[in-house]
């Protein structure tokens, strides 16, 4: 039983995710999207990158790949699914999670460390943290601004489905700490099941001690 890291044409963070999972002792394999999921898959990562060159909208074409039907079925059956960056865009485009990601408020590609506040600690993805903890994890995106109607955001907040928010190093949510203009400073959200989540920052790039902060390792440990 392994975690499937799904590779689409244009994915470029699949090996990063696989290496981070392996470092954490989580068995995994990179799966080409045309090959489908194995019957005993124990988790799914939709990795970052630029699937299909971000044509139409970021993640839109990958979301319509046949394997995403299998991913949705696995998610409905309780299999943990995590979408990261482009994988978060794919997750929203395929209906795994609500909302959408669009062009950064700056209208430019941004690659930098940011701070995230853990909004709840009772999910598989945040069980290694406490609510209110501040994590330092990098972003690397041009279309990372989370958008959703105000009434739908209110519903998400009422249902406690906002997982992470951009914040200052002290944990304050402020316009200056929101790198892309995401509505509500949302950096990560849950699907209808707490075993499904998407986030724009890259936890796999904040897991190996050799590359700096290891704040993201706890997120990936959700598969354990």
Give a written overview of the molecule.
It is found in: Cytoplasm. It catalyses: N(2)-formyl-N(1)-(5-phospho-beta-D-ribosyl)glycinamide + L-glutamine + ATP + H2O = 2-formamido-N(1)-(5-O-phospho-beta-D-ribosyl)acetamidine + L-glutamate + ADP + phosphate + H(+); L-glutamine + H2O = L-glutamate + NH4(+). InterPro entries: Class_I_gatase-like, PRibForGlyAmidine_synth_PurQ. It is a single chain. With 224 residues, this protein is of the alpha/beta class. It has one domain: Class I glutamine amidotransferase (GATase) domain (Rossmann fold, 3-Layer(aba) Sandwich), CATH 3.40.50.880. The chain has 5 helices and 11 strands.
Strand count, sense and closure of the main sheet?
9 strands, mixed
Which architecture would the CATH scheme give at its second level?
A: 3-Layer(aba) Sandwich
What is the CATH C-level name?
A: Alpha Beta
Strand content: 25-35%
Class by alpha and beta content: alpha/beta
Low-confidence stretches: none
Q: Indicate the percent of residues in helices.
A: 10-25%
CATH superfamily: Class I glutamine amidotransferase (GATase) domain
Count of distinct structural domains: 1
Instruction: Choose one word for the global shape.
Output: globular
**First and last CA, distance:** 12 Å
Total strands: the figure is 11
| Strand numbers in spatial order across the main sheet | 2-1-3-4-11-10-9-6-7
Task: Kindly provide the radius of gyration, computed on alpha-carbon positions and rounded to a whole number of angstroms.
Answer: 16 Å
Find the CATH topology: Rossmann fold
